[in-house]
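Hello forum,

I keep getting stuck at the same step: I have a sequence, I want structure tokens, and every attempt I make locally crashes halfway through. Rather than fight my setup again tonight, could one of you with a working pipeline run this one for me? It's a single chain of 319 residues.
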Amino acid sequence: MGIDGGGTSTRVLLVDGEGRRLGEGQSGSGNLHDVGASQLQVHVDEAWRGAWAAAGTEPRAADSVFCAMASVGTPGNRETVRDLVARVGVGAPGAVEVDIDLVGALAGGLGGGDGIVLIAGTGSSCFGRDGSGRTFQSGGWGSLLDDVGSATWLGTGAMIAAIRAFDGRGPGTSLEGSVMETLGLGHMRELLPVIDSGTGVRARRARLARLVTGAAEEGDEVARRLLKEGAAALAECVEAVHGRLEFRGEAVEVALTGGLGEHVPAYRELVHRAVERRIPGARCVRARASNLVGAALEALQRLPGDPGPAARARLLGAD
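Reply #2:
Ran it on my machine without issues. Output:
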């Protein structure tokens, strides 16, 4: 069983030992930092039961579970997630492994091969593995300090552009009106209490990213500049990972994944061009499979005995 926990959702994919997909379930945010251990356990339970329901079978512990989760950069956080997953009954403690979401993203994005994966979703981060097995991560420090080029970063940029236009400190932009309309503001001064209180603050900011991509399509120069700056910042993360690892032989593959990376073609193209300018030998590719499939692939490969290339190909090929 693969579990993909990101800022937007917790997704669970159940597969058999031959790589056949049996069922998928989904629930709320899978970010431990955002929702806390108790709520994350609820979301894991809902998604886990949903996967078994889709398979038409009563829930039971899986033989191998890999959790690719946001906000588990420390051993303590990984242990917290491992314990709550075991309490739900997803798998026995010895059968559950937890690692950062980037591990699943790399496995899915490059089909289990070496290279670099760049996540641009609610948050952002970059991760690579070279032929010697060495890994390195750049970014992923959260929305307060980092998450460059992500939906949260773009949404925050939309609000900054809006208030600067309102104040007369920045150029006029359609984002001023669209931010007010989307958030239901009667006056721009209502922005701060609306966007900075209650739960789900980061998700609310991330949802404003669509205002930036939409305004850019309509020719808004402020929005276009935000997208270019976001793409450049993401490419900088890739360059940092590339510089710490040793890729020999063929050009290193870089897979872009996450909601923005996968579903906004104009932004994806900007990021690809920015990466290839910084790393002439890079070859930007569409992710072969999703982060969720990557997590399931990691679980499959941890089954006792080698499941074999046919099982891995079957799991990856279904995308």
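Residues 2-109+290-317 form a domain with the Nucleotidyltransferase; domain 5 fold (CATH 3.30.420.40). If your local run keeps crashing, start a new thread with the error log.
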